[in-house]
Amino acid sequence: MGKFDNKVVLITGGSRGQGAAHARAFVEEGAKVAITDVLVEDGQALAAELGDNATFLKHDVTSELQWTRIVEQTEEIYGPINVLVNNAGIVISKPFEELSEAEYRKVIDINQVGVFLGMKAVVPSLKKSGNGVIINISSINGLRGSAGTLAYDASKFAVRGMTKSAAIELAPYGIRVNSIHPGVILTPMVSQSDVADVADQLAENVPLKRAAQPEEVSKLVLFLAGDASYSTGSEFILDGGLTAKY
Predict the structure, then answer these.
(1) Is 241 a member of any domain?
(2) Among 152, 173, 230, 246, the one annotated catalytic
(3) What is the predicted pLDDT for the residue at 209?
(4) Which residue of 19, 23, 48, 159 has the fewest CB atoms within a 10 Å radius of its CB?
């Protein structure tokens, strides 16, 4: 028996990196997982690997219409959603004087607006399932600033604030909402050329002297989805002690 037998979980940005690790962890614990992403081939391959308890749905998190469709499709396949993990996100690293308006808006649309649309779209389904959970993946950059990541920082601070407001509004329905603030996690996003040097420098300053594996974030995701029954409106830091130094 798994801790999440017959629970329905929707994970955005689930094709690779942290999202894929979360999908694997939930399926291992018996959940039925809808993996959504714009990375179709990776998502389809992951769903095939995980078997009947996982399905892939192509999804642009910046589209309200697509959010409505994704929730409907998930319910048709598995039933009402119990857990939403708002994991999809991007980063563009460059001095803000060189950042274009289009680049800024792209980061905000995916990282911030996508979270808002996701929470709004999934609430009716969470109310049906009873005692629903929303987990928003923010960042330590939602707690502190960093040079070269102004748009990313703005979006992740916003996710932290939206989490608290949503938690207050949804508490009467038994729906819990929390944010996770990872530090340096070994995913494809931190390997991209414009981010890798900054990530390497941060990892050198981590008190635990290493970056984290995505599976270490998944353990916290599962805790918040299950055993953390009295936690809502809170931020949970997973950074090897990095923010404790500043």
Answers:
(1) no
(2) 152
(3) 87
(4) 48
Q: Report the alpha-carbon distance of residue 30 to residue 5 in Å, rounded.
A: 4
Helix or strand holding residue 134 (H, E): strand 133-137
SS3 of residue 21 by DSSP: helix
Stated pTM of the model: 0.94
Residues in the chain: 246
* Nearest C-alpha neighbor of 159 from the set 133, 185, 179: 179
Q: For 153-200, write each residue's pLDDT tens digit.
A: 999 999 999 999 999 999 999 999 999 999 999 886 655 455 556 656
Task: Quote the number of domains for the chain.
Answer: 1
Distance CA 110, CA 100 (A): 16
Q: Strand, coil or helix: what is 220? A: helix
CATH number at residue 209: 3.40.50.720
Question: In whole angstroms, what separates CA 145 from the centre of its chain?
Answer: 20
Coil, helix or strand for 57? strand
Helix (H) or strand (E) holding 108: helix 101-108
CB atoms near residue 38 (< 10 Å)? 16
Helices 150-170 + 114-129 axis angle, to 10:
20
Residue 209 lies in a domain: yes
Is 152 an annotated catalytic residue?
Answer: yes
Beta-carbon neighbour count of residue 94 at 10 Å? 14
